[in-house]
Amino acid sequence: MEGSVRDWQVHPARLVRLFMALSPLVLALLLVSCCSRAPEEPPAAPAPAALEADADLVIALLPERNVFEQKIKYLPLQAYLSRKLGLSVYFKLLDNYDHIFSELLEDRVDGAFWGSMNGAIAQVRGGVEILARPVWPDNSSTYWGYIFTLEGSGITSDPATWRGRSIAFVNKVTTAGFLYPLSVLRQAGITDDPGTYFDRAIFSGSHDASLIAVVQGEVDMGACKNTIFQEFLQRNPDVAANVKILSTSAAVPSNGLGVRPSLDDGLKARLREALLTMHEDPDGMAALNKFGALKFIETSFQDYSPVIDMAEKAGINLSDWPLRNVREARPYR
User: Fold this and answer.
1) Could you read off the pLDDT of 236-284 as tens digits, one per residue?
2) ∠ CA(282), CA(273), CA(106), 5° rounding?
3) Is the pLDDT of residue 16 over 50?
4) For residues 61 and 285, what is the distance between their CA atoms, to the nearest angstrom?
5) Residue 121: which H helix or E strand, with range?
6) Where in the sequence of the chain do the CATH 3.40.190.10 domains occur?
7) How does DSSP classify residue 47?
8) Tell me: the pLDDT tens digits for 62-88?
9) Which fold has domain 52-141+253-308?
10) Residue from 243, 247, 223 nearest 234 by CA
11) Positive or negative CA dihedral for 258, 205, 212, 198?
12) How far is the C-alpha of 225 from the C-alpha of 332, rounded, in Å?
C-alpha cells in the first residue's frame, strides 16, 4: 500500500550503505554540526600571576620569616583570591615598609599587609584603608608587646633600673619592638634619648632576634611581640623559666590588609567581601588553614587607637615618622 509506514522505514543494512556512500566533505560537515551542539565548558578561573607584570591585583608583603615558609603560607591565599575575584592576583615581596609605602602611593602595588605601627602611619600619612585582619587559632586578632629580661638581672619594671643597661629593640617602625618601650620611658618622665639612657641599645631587626640576644646574654633586656615570645619559649622550654616579663602593652591589631586610596571602590568592596567570607567557603577554609588563621574580620582606623595613644605618650608624630624597617642588628643610632 502506497504511503504506508513500512515505505518510510529504512533497513539497517541500507542505512550502512547510505552512510558509506556519503562523501568525506558531507561527513565532515555532519561531525562539525554535531560538535557545535555540545555544551560549552565554563571559562577557567584566573590563575594567580607568576609575574607581577601579568597581575591584575598586586599585594605587597614584608618578609617576616624564611622566604620559602612565607610562600607556603601566602600562596594558597593568593590562589584563592584569584579564583574568588576573577582576577590574577600576585603577592610581591618588598624589603621594607618605606618601599611598600612608596610603591603603593605611586600605584605600583594595590595593597599590602601592614603591622600595627606602620599600618597606623600608612593610614595617617597616605589614606591607606585597612580592609581586614586575620583571627588566629586562639581566637585572637590582636597582639601586644613585652619588655623582658632574665631572672637575676636586677632589672625591674621601674624604668629607673634600666639606666646604663643594654637593650635590644626590633626596629623603629614596630609597636612592640620600639614604640611601646619608648612610651614607657616617656611616661616615667625619662626624656633622654634611648641611645644615651641605655649603655648600649641595638636594633636586632626581628622580634625573635631580640629575644635570642637576651637569652644569649648579648644584652640585658629586650622588647618583642607576645606571639613570637610565646612561640620561642614553646620551642625552647629549657629557657622559659629564666625569662622574666617586666611590662606588657595594650593589645593592638594583627597585621591587616590595607589598600591604596585610589583603588576602585567596587574592587575594594569585592576584596573585603572575599576576605570576610573565606571561612564560609570550603576552598577558603583550605587556604585559611595553610595561612594559619580561622577567618578574617573587618578592621577600621578606630582599631588603631591603642597605637596612636602609645605614639602620643612616646612623643612621636605618626604623620612624619619615617617608615624605615631596620632588618639587621645595628647600633641604635
Assistant:
1) 999 888 999 999 999 999 999 999 999 999 999 999 999 999 999 999 9
2) 120
3) no
4) 21
5) helix 116-126
6) 52-141+253-308, 145-249
7) P
8) 766 556 677 788 899 999 999 999 999
9) D-Maltodextrin-Binding Protein; domain 2 (3.40.190)
10) 243
11) negative
12) 19
Grid cell at residue 50: 607568576
Those residues whose C-beta lies under 8 Å from the C-beta of residue 145, and which sit 6 or more positions away, are 175, 176, 177, 180, 181, 223, 224, 225, 226, 248, 249
What CA–CA distance (Å, rounded) separates 258 from 298?
11
User: How is residue 143 written as a grid cell?
Assistant: 597582639
Q: Are the C-beta atoms of residues 197 and 162 closer than 8 Å to each other? A: yes
Of residues 85 and 36, more confidently modeled: 85
Read off φ and ψ for residue 260, nearest 5 degrees.
-65, 150
Predicted TM-score of the model (pTM): 0.77
Decide: 146 and 290 in contact? Cβ < 8 Å.
no
**How much is the pLDDT for 13?**
44
| Single-letter amino acid code for the residue at 87 | L
pLDDT at residue 95 in the model: 75
Cα–Cα distance for residue pair 226/22, rounded to 1 Å: 81
pLDDT at 33 over 80: no
* Short-list 326, 323, 298, 330, CA closest to 115: 323
Cell of 217: 646574654
| Residues counted in the chain | 333
Does domain 145-249 fall under CATH 3.40.50.1910? My reply is: no
Nearest residue to 297 via CA among 272, 270, 266? 272
- Burial (CB count <10 Å: 0-12, 13-18, 19+), residue 12: exposed
B/e letters for 209-234, b = 16+ CB within 10 Å, e = fewer, are: bbbbbbbeebbbbbbbbbbbbeebbe
First to last CA, the chain: 112
Contact 209, 174 (CB under 8 A): no
Residue for grid cell 617586666: 246
